[in-house]
Amino acid sequence: MPEAPEPAGQRCDFCGAVVPTVRRVALDQDYDRLVKPHRELYACAPCSERKERSRLGLGPDRTPR
After folding, report:
1. Which residues pair with 34 in a beta bridge?
2. What's the pTM?
3. Confidence class of residue 52 from pLDDT cuts 50, 70 and 90?
4. Where are the domains of the chain?
């Protein structure tokens, strides 16, 4: 039996949802993820907004899967 095809889109590294587009914040004042070696993480819109609020000290963060 053939395997089901993967859903179209990209997977959010935070919640695992498959969405049409993802976001990645790399540069901001006092925040430069282009210089330090790290694992790149991509987020759906809701996770990106949640992560941004957390980064700014405005709300909770979720650990990536």
Report:
1. none
2. 0.64
3. confident
4. 10-55
